[in-house]
Amino acid sequence: MSLVDRLLASFLLVLLLATITTTATAQGGTQIHGNFSTDVQYYNIDSAIGAVVPPQRFGNNAWANFIATHGNFEVGARLESYNPSLAGYPAGQPYQGTGIGYRYAKFTVSDLEITVGNFFEQFGQGLIFRSYEERYLGVDNAIDGVRLKYKPYRGVYLKGIMGQQRAAFDNGFTKGPGIVRGLDAEVSLAELLDSAWTHAGNLIIGGSFVSKYQRDDVSTLVLPENVAAGSFRLNYTTSKLNFYTEYAYKVNDPNNRNGNIYKNGQALMANLTYSVKGFGASVGAHSFDNMFFQSNRAATTPFDLNINYLPPLTKQHTYNLPATLYPYATQPNGEVSGQGEVFWKIKKGSKLGGKYGTKIAVNYSVAFGLDTTRLGLADDTTKIYGYSSKFFTPNLDRMYFQDINIEIRRKLSPTWQLALTYLNFTYDIDVIQGKAGQKVVYADMFVLEGLHNFSEKNSLRFELQHLSTKQDHGNWVTGLAEFTFSPHWFLAVMDQFNYVTTAPTFEKDGKVEAPDRLHYPIASVGYIRSGTRFQVNYGRQRAGIFCVGGVCRQVPAANGLTLSITSTF
Predict the structure, then answer these.
(1) Is 191 in contact with 154 (CB distance < 8 Å)?
(2) Which residue of 161, 504, 533, 549 has the fewest CB atoms within a 10 Å radius of its CB?
(3) Cα–Cα distance, 468 to 464 (Å, whole number)
């Protein structure tokens, strides 16, 4: 255990002992809170679906957070255990063993906040810096170092960070070789100017600078040891309008993800939303060029040691088939994307709105490759710079993704609600999921969702989903029913059926063969009491993609029993 770990452990122990001898809720006293969660899975052999069965036949992910506060002082720690981790988890480097995965101490004095140890932070929308955690993806790039936040004057906010990123977990977190340094400044004009600001809205201006240091230990290349990136952002808001734009530039950063080229990178995003009662609209556009930014240039996967975050510009679906079969993941090395959405509510009592009103949402999103030109092979320019590009200019011959969806929601009576959704996908599975040589997927989906309230405490929610495509795995149908017996019990059953086609044969990977038609049934039961939730699942899990916020990981096929417990205190 390092000196920092020993000091923070000592602080936490002192505060825990203080809690035992003092009243936690007393003014100025010590307070302790936290949470616990675990997922335990037992794996069955199931050759029909190619289920993954670890040697131990068990997998277990567990986390426990403890946070103690006393006046202006706060200390916290997270204990993690993977014995072993669930199959397919995490997204990047392996996690194994039990130990401290996160610990910190924070002190606030006047307008200065000081954090030592681990922390999560973000500058702007994250184009050049975002440290964050998506626990169920296994993404955690927490910084271990020092963070300062300072408010020198009203409306002026300053941040400074320095440290190394969490890379993996081996009986405790391990760190990557690079050092990350960053500064961020933001000014809110409405706050700064106070009464002198007479506009109805507010304008927020921000800028960031981030650099990483990694020693050049590659003898065959001359690599930059310090790589810098900067960004500038504007955010204008009113009661009805929100406009946000951010531009980022990154100097040459040869790495495993871009083929060790010395080309500079840049990113631009712009989003506009407008909303009034009963109506809303949004439009956005993003462009990314050579924007992988990792604190280890030799990182083995795209999930490890990411310094930045490039938000996707697609609708984040919650229904099972569109969310897990063909979700879109941002392409940092080159992408131009756009999205538009309109939402409106038809008035109650009208012919179209019905007695209770009708809600309609139409969304369109598309992503293309960036318009690039491979540099000539007559000299070393291709090896050094790779390609030239026309920023914010799409390659219309290479569509990565397109999603057209329409959703209609209507309350039929005090006890019944229905929603109907249509989705049309174009999905370049070769680029997005790395399935080389696979054909572009064209899919249509229909989803019918219903909710029936038997009483104030008991309800039934159901979904019927259908996906049709002639590519990849063919056609799917999913049925889901969830019974809720408030306030404690819930029961759910779901079956995914990959019937592929109604025809006797199906072309897959260039071969025409009889399709394998497979069911993936699963049943769940759960119990909730106060801050604790128990859930047990049994059945099949198909291989697929699990995504959160445009970041995805592969989930292997599995058959077995899963127990999940979460609790807060």
Answers:
(1) yes
(2) 504
(3) 14
